[in-house]
Design brief:
It contains 13 helices and eleven strands. The chain is globular. The structure holds adenosine-5'-diphosphate (ADP) and zinc ion. Adenosine-5'-diphosphate binds next to α4, α5 and α6.
């Protein structure tokens, strides 16, 4: 078992990564929550496979469980469901000593986390991520959110979980497309950090899955500890995301996030080679790895289309946008790029 302690300024918590640790969620929460009740929020794909195990574990540890099942998919991360979850917590009579447990992928984690952040002005919550993307990315760092009509993740809060329990056995039932989605973000960590995670990924994800997940969490830990609320350093986690968000938007959010991030990382590597002195060998090494992982190295949109969409992004600051460039593998940097230069970058 691997345990990584995240020491965020607003809360310290452990991320447990192990095969089969789903059975110990009750014992883990017992150490964190003095309350008698736990509300489990999950979705209709995850519930039939894992809900029984999780509820039993909570009951064995002495909790009464209350379960809320969302329809799977991003469309569920909406204001109406958010309010409905709050009403559910109230009608289940959870009080300040009680906790929410998010069992599922990023959608469940984001909306359940935001409900926990706001119910009674904030109660404890536990993340039980079941997708590769949520294990390595969204369950760590304390960002919670819902989508608005105007865009994704436009309402939310920074709210740290009391613990994260990632059972790598859950990946056995995860569809291949969702594995790829997670690999896109992992590829990003490999470029940000270089070293062991990159070498293991080159040797084969499935051979080293648990170690690669742990290294991803540890890289994110280091970055969010230094900058919990994204005032500066945390921005490097957006490597590849400026063009990826643009492509997602252009597709009407039908393109999966992590897969677009892989194309975005490669786009920023090409841009960094052309403009910021990145060696060709580094860019080619990541391109080869991306192909081996079955991920795209380019977008389906032209540089002009991507640039126009990025210029309208919520994170655009006036006439420039933040983008992360790569000086060398293991050395990335957030820079401001004038909107007028974006199309030369998104090559
Ligand atoms: P993500 O974690 O990628 O942000 P979601 O929360 O939308 O995204 O999860 C992706 C999809 O995978 C959803 O349809 C969800 O119901 C399903 N899912 C999540 N975990 C598992 C699992 N362990 N086995 C099978 N399907 C799962
Ligand atoms: Zn991302």
């Amino acid at each position: 078992m691997t345990s990584i302690t995240v020491n965020a300024p607003s809360g310290k918590y452990d991320v447990l990564i192990d095969e089969g640790c789903l059975l110990s969620v009750g014992a883990v929460l017992k150490k964190q929550s003095p309350g008698r009740r736990v509300a489990v929020v999950t979705d209709d794909n995850v519930a039939p496979i894992y809900l029984d195990k999780v509820e039993n574990s909570f009951r064995l540890a002495g909790f009464d469980t209350y379960t809320y099942i969302l329809k799977h998919g991003e469309a569920s991360k909406c204001g109406a469901n958010f309010l409905d979850i709050l009403e559910f917590l109230a009608s289940s009579r959870l009080d300040r000593s009680d906790a929410v447990a998010a069992l599922g992928g990023g959608v469940v984690g984001d909306i359940a986390g935001f409900a926990a952040a706001t119910y009674l002005r904030g109660i404890k919550y536990m993340q039980i991520p079941t997708t590769l993307l949520s294990m390595t990315d969204s369950s760590v760092g304390g960002k919670t959110a819902i989508d608005l009509k105007a865009g994704k993740n436009l309402a939310g809060a920074f709210w740290q979980p009391v613990s994260v329990v990632a059972d790598t056995k859950c990946l056995e039932t995860l569809p291949e497309a969702e594995i790829k989605n997670g690999l896109g973000e992992i590829l990003k960590y490999a470029v940000i950090a270089g070293g062991e995670i990159l070498e293991l990924l080159e040797d084969g994800f499935s051979r080293h899955a648990a170690r690669i997940i742990a290294l991803s969490v540890d890289i994110k830990r280091g970055i969010v500890e230094a900058d919990e609320k994204e005032a500066g350093p945390r921005r490097i986690l957006n490597l590849g995301h400026t063009p990826a968000h643009a492509a997602e938007k252009l597709s009407g959010y039908t393109f999966p996030h992590g897969v677009q991030v892989a194309a975005g990382v490669n786009t920023m590597l090409r841009a960094s080679h052309a403009k910021y002195g990145l060696g060709a060998a580094d860019a080619e090494r990541i391109e080869r790895l991306t192909r081996r992982l079955g991920l795209p190295t380019r977008f389906d949109y032209s540089p002009e289309e991507l640039a126009a969409a990025a210029a309208n992004d919520k994170k655009a600051e006036g006439s420039s946008v933040n983008a992360v460039i790569v000086r060398a593998i293991g050395k990335v940097e957030s820079v401001k790029i004038p909107v007028s230069e974006l199309k030369e970058l998104f090559i």
